[in-house]
User: What shape does this take?
Amino acid sequence: MATLRKEIDISYNKLQLKTQNKLKSFRKIHCLNETYSLRDDKVYFERAKDTYIYDYDGNKYLDFSMGAGTTLFGHASPIILDNVKDILDNGTIFTSPNMKAHELAEKLNKILYLDDFIFCNSGAESTSRAMRIARAYTNRNKIAIFSGGWHGGHDYGLVDDNYDIGDNSIVTPILKSQGIPPEILDTMILLPYNDKKAFEIIDKNKNDIAAVFIEPSQGSNPRDDMKEFLVELRGVTKKSNILLCFDEIITGFRIAKGGAQEYYDIDIDMATYAKTIGGGFPFGIIAGKHDIMKTIKEKSIFMGGTFSANPISITSSLSVVNYLLKNDIYENLNNNAKFLKESINNYCIENNISLRISNFGSMFRFIFTDKFIRSRKDRDKYEIPYEIQNVFYKDLLNNGIYIGSNRINFISTMHTKKILEQFIEKVIATITKLQKDKLI
Ligand SMILES: Cc1ncc(COP(=O)(O)O)c(C=O)c1O
Assistant: This one.
């Protein structure tokens, strides 16, 4: 058992030798940026095209991170870049509204069943500002979010469960980072995910809650069976005039043109978008019903920023929207995801392997258990240790497959069935190796 792990580690450590040496040549590393610094895998990439990503050592990997889900049409797609290149000579920032932003808002209004839009520069900026709008609109201070969720790295978004293994209905809110005033905890309510206890907690706190924020499918446990829960959540929030905000930063424009709102056919008050709709450029959107969004002006809710609605991000986003309005990509994309999931899951079932793919359309995740899980908490309860999961991911990387360190995977329109077949073959080879060694 130790030998296989050692062998995988040796190959892994050899992968980016040039990169490692280059890093050593810096007297001191001054850049402390991290993306999702959850794991020990630190891989550096130089360039990417379509479904492939290349490191500085010249290795080529089939990419399933796809810029954390931002590049729906593949890396460096001409669908986006042809338009962006065209405008670069005309100035990249005006710090004033531009006409294209209105064009984008008009088109979004036709797609999203929401009226008005604020353009931001990231997902985190969108959710933190959406929380501000909800608080100002309702004159209530608390925002409810769910265990297992993620709304970005701002102070409110860093309230999370401590994930003590146990009853799914019991959650313990903690601050996930130092440097945040403890008072922030008092402004948030943490709810158990996919658990009816959440509705009781909402009802008990109904006079304090401005909005409930939920990812219609959490990245930590992608799934497509949330309709009943979301419908009930809509009912409970509506009854108490609590706003319901879908955080569609991953699911928006990915599962369907109108995102999970369209997929589940649920009437929501607000939504946030980023990733896919930015076409690979920094972007975010707050969308809401007119009655709510008009309070931004009425109550002077601050929304500005140097790069807000900048011409590059707006042009990129318009390119995404224009393409989606002219082309139906979703049937093929979702069918490809289904093919991938069924191929791997059937193999694992037939061979008695405790591994499954769980997905919401083209967003998917490997779950290292054969048990049904309702939530991230269940996932933690039943999965094999992260340390062993990492052996699986390292072996995939050694074999030319890149899975992002947040372990959320995405298929783009460039991931053809043929490419997916190659991926399935490599995944099965890794699983077989690990099973033989009794690691999974
Ligand atoms: C559901 C969700 N909300 C918010 C965010 C934060 O977006 P960003 O990283 O652009 O700030 C993310 C990013 O992964 C996300 O998945």
Residues 68, 122-124, 127, 150-152, 215, 219, 247, 249-250, 274 surround pyridoxal-5'-phosphate (CB under 6 Å). The radius of gyration is 22 Å. The longest strand covers residues 209-214. The chain has 16 helices and 16 strands.
